[in-house]
Amino acid sequence: MSDIKSKAQGLDANVQPRDVLELVAKTGNIYESLVIISKRARQISSDLKWEIQRKLEEFAVNTDTIEEVQENKEQIEISKFYERLPNTSIIAANEFLHDEIQWRYTEEKEQ
């Protein structure tokens, strides 16, 4: 987890144009490249969601009434940190372009 966060902190959170030929060069097909990037982005998103939920549960207080909701500064800081991270698709595209993603093709079943 922390490896993803450390990579993401150095990235520009703004969307940048990408060279399509560079994406195609890795797989030979732009659609395959986009599928690989999108699947990795989904993995990163799921990992980050799990991590933030785990961290926020540490500060959760069980109360019976809605009126007793309290703001916790630690929760707010944790949430702001995760909100500042770049979009998961930006992280995944960066990993793909720097050869940090491994993928393989499954063989099709004979009919």
Structural overview:
The chain is mostly helical. The protein has five helices and no strands. α3 packs antiparallel against α4 (73-84).
Give me some keywords for this one:
111 residues, mainly alpha
The helix/strand order is: HHHHH
Describe the global form: elongated
Count every helix, treating DSSP H or I runs of 4 or more residues as helices: 5
**Unreliable runs, pLDDT <50, ≥5 residues?**
none
Rg estimate, integer Å: 19 Å
Layout: helices, strands, pairs:
Layout: H1 2-9, H2 20-27, H3 30-57, H4 73-84, H5 88-97
Task: Provide a quick synopsis of the model.
This protein is mainly α and 111 residues long. 59% of the residues lie in helices and 0% in strands. It has one domain.
